[in-house]
Amino acid sequence: MVATEHNIAIRCRNVIKTYGEGGSQVFALRGIDLDVNAGQLMMLVGPSGCGKTTLISVIAGILDQNSGECTVYGQNLNAMKQRDRTRFRGTTIGFVFQAFNLLPTLTAAENAAIPLLINGAKRRFAMDRAREMLDRVGLGNRSESLPSQMSGGQQQRVAIARALIHDPKLIVCDEPTSALDHETGHKVMEMLREVALRENRSLVIVTHDARIFSFADRIAEMDDGRVIRVSEGSRELEPISTQ
């Protein structure tokens, strides 16, 4: 798909992100230029420490960049007041964290329901919807389990259900299949891709998992805080070092 002004979901222009100051300053992003189309699944790949997670955190409005511009469906999150940004993220963006970030005292269904509850949904509706989403990721029988009673792979699927429950236009995932076996990983990716292909939605995935490259519409390769190449699908991409 050729990108046009009408189908670009994410646009990053000369995005720079640093940590620290003076002689201890570290550049995490060194002038990122990247477009992500609506209706497509974009993967970010590259060695550990190259800036992938920082980039998706900027895109999702979790981190502020130092300079440059990043818009999500035409909205510049960095220019928003914190209250407006929180509201926008709560309705438009779903985020799957690599560390899952499940609340330990809540059940799987309660964790998955959080975005709906924050957005003001009735508890009964939110919990019913959460159980439906957990069933879709193969956890229909674990809705009342606490995170401590689930494996890492099961917790990851709860996190994915939570990211999808409010039907966001943008889903951002950090290593969503890292704790999953091959079969479960492919089932999850099929579900995520189905979501991404819906009209005017998009999905950005950070991954080292070469098993799922075939699900991508486009793959952006990163190194040392830069996007060095964007390929159509996975067939043009050489294996990426994860060291």
- CATH first level of the domain at 8-99 and 169-232: which class? Alpha Beta
What overall geometry do the principal axes of the alpha carbons give?
A: globular
The major sheet is characterized as: 6 strands, mixed
| CATH topology heading of the domain at 8-99 and 169-232 | Rossmann fold
Alpha-carbon Rg, integer: 18 Å
Instruction: Detail the poorly predicted runs.
Output: 235-243
Beta fraction: 25-35%
Helix-strand string = EEEHEEHEHHHEHEEE
Name the helicity range: 25-40%
Mean pLDDT: 88
Could you list some keywords that capture this structure?
243 residues; alpha/beta; Rossmann fold; 6-stranded mixed sheet; 4-stranded antiparallel sheet; 6 helices; globular; disordered C terminus
Question: Summarize this, please?
Answer:
The chain is of the alpha/beta class and 243 residues long. It is built from six helices and ten strands.
Break the fold down into its secondary structure elements and pairings.
Layout: E1 8-19, E2 26-37, E3 41-45, H1 52-59, E4 67-72, E5 75-76, H2 82-92, E6 93-96, H3 108-118, H4 123-136, H5 152-164, E7 170-174, H6 182-196, E8 202-206, E9 218-223, E10 226-232
Parallel strand pairs: 3-8, 3-9, 6-7, 7-8
Antiparallel strand pairs: 1-2, 1-4, 4-5, 9-10
Explain what you see.
There is one protein chain. The protein is built from 6 helices and 10 strands. With 243 residues, it is an alpha/beta fold. The protein has a domain at 8-99 and 169-232: 3-Layer(aba) Sandwich (Rossmann fold), CATH 3.40.50. The chain has a 6-stranded mixed beta sheet with strand order 6-7-8-3-9-10, with helices on both faces. A 4-stranded antiparallel beta sheet has the order 2-1-4-5, with helices on one face. A hairpin with a 2-residue loop joins strand 9 and strand 10. Helix 3 (108-118) runs parallel beside helix 5 and helix 4 crosses helix 5. The protein is globular.
